[in-house]
Amino acid sequence: MQAAPPDRLAKAVALLEHLIAFDTESSKTNLPLIAFVETYLRDLGVPFMVVPNDKGDKAALFATIGPMVDDGIVLSGHTDVVPVEGQEWTTDPFQLRRDKDRLYGRGSVDMKGFAAVALAMAPAFQQAALKRPIHILLSYDEETTCLGPVETIARFGKDLPRPRAVIVGEPTLMQVADSHKSISTYDTRVHGFEAHSAKPALGAHAIAAAADLVSELSRLQDKLEVMGDPSGRFDPPYATVHVGKIQGGTARNILAKECTFLWEFRGLPGMPANFALQHLRDYATRVALPKLRRFTMNASIETDVEVDIPCLTAEAGSVAETLALKLSQSNNTIAVPYATEGGRFQTAGIPTVVCGPGSIDQAHQPDEYIEVKEVEAGLKFMERLAEEMSV
């Protein structure tokens, strides 16, 4: 008689403790965490492939449990976390702390909790006599660019099996999200010309021009709110534009030579990702730049695209949606306002949904946590997945 399977909840919590202990802020390497997962999978006899980035300081990991064939399901999660600098944590953010029914630590909910659940289920997946494979994909840089899985996706159908669906495990309280907004981030730089503040006609004031551009983005936000959300599914019910940082100038009595501001646009599905960018560039050409150059041509305005992450568009009745609703024992899908790697998979033609344990409300905060009941819900979801892939 085979021994009873280990306590999966205890295994998931133990794995989460290990994963949290790796400081994988997006600016740092994730290789030690990947090495830990490699050892774990190797001990289980699970085949995997490591896909490093160009610099060699980060890597994605793609593991396959079951037959090495197409038509499997990918459980996708990212290993990077947001910074803890400046946040007031009760205890060490990179040491799991359990307090009653909550598990605290950076990445506990976003989204090492999902990774721990998927890895804890690996032995059960092995025992399930899968007819189609279950893949675990752990990526990097989701919190900055969502480019971590792109090189792996490019290999689907080549030296890696092509999956029929992807479940991205971002925290949704195990609800099935079939749609999310896009996000594009920008760096706008205004180049002016220095002069004495008492003689403004001798220069070009970069801060004044930047302030004008920021004000135009504020007016654009008003227009976006009036346009609203035709689907009626998003909160807030409109696209958003936001300026997060502005800096420039050298002294109170000098016209600023340079001023920069960092901003973002979160677009509804169906909206061009460059909607706000085109709006600002048009305004700069028609209004801001002529005003900046009214005394000198030694001035310019430039905007660079930093990140362009596609939205996830609802595909009613898709393989991913149908499967995830069945596994979550739900009849309804939701839309979420934050971006994920889901759009990367969908752009590659793979049906994708977002569904994972925990609440996004606890993400990115000091004393981030996931509730134990959410870990249990994630395990139940994956137990049903194993059953589904074995018939």
Brief digest:
The protein is an alpha/beta fold and 391 residues long. The protein contains ten helices and 15 strands.
Provide structural commentary.
The chain has ten helices and 15 strands. It is α/β, with parallel strands linked by helices. The strands form four sheets. A six-stranded mixed sheet has the order 1-2-6-3-7-14. Strands 10-11-9-12 form a four-stranded antiparallel sheet, covered by helices on one side. A three-stranded antiparallel sheet has the order 4-5-15. α1 (8-21) packs across α3 (112-120), α3 (112-120) crosses α10 and α6 (206-227) runs antiparallel to α7. It is elongated and about 80 Å long.
For the residues shown, what is the average pLDDT?
Answer: 96
Shape: elongated
Assign the structural class, choosing from mainly alpha, mainly beta, alpha/beta, alpha+beta, or little secondary structure.
Answer: alpha/beta
N-to-C order of helices and strands:
HHEEEEEHHEHEEEHEEHEHEHEEH
Poorly predicted ranges: none
**Helical proportion, percent range:** 25-40%
Give me the count of strands. Answer: 15
Q: Proportion of β residues? A: 15-25%
How far apart lie the N and C ends? 24 Å
Radius of gyration over C-alpha positions, nearest whole angstrom: 24 Å
Strand order of the largest sheet: 1-2-6-3-7-14
* Major sheet attributes: 6 strands, mixed
Figure out the total of helices.
10
Features:
4-stranded antiparallel β-sheet, alpha/beta, 10 helices, 391 residues
Write the layout of secondary structure elements.
Elements: H1 8-21, H2 31-44, E1 48-52, E2 59-65, E3 73-78, E4 97-99, E5 102-104, H3 112-120, H4 122-127, E6 134-139, H5 150-154, E7 165-168, E8 176-180, E9 183-191, H6 206-227, E10 240-248, E11 258-266, H7 275-292, E12 300-309, H8 319-328, E13 333-336, H9 342-347, E14 352-354, E15 369-371, H10 372-388
Parallel strand pairs: 3-6, 3-7, 7-14, 8-13
Antiparallel strand pairs: 1-2, 2-6, 4-5, 5-15, 9-11, 9-12, 10-11
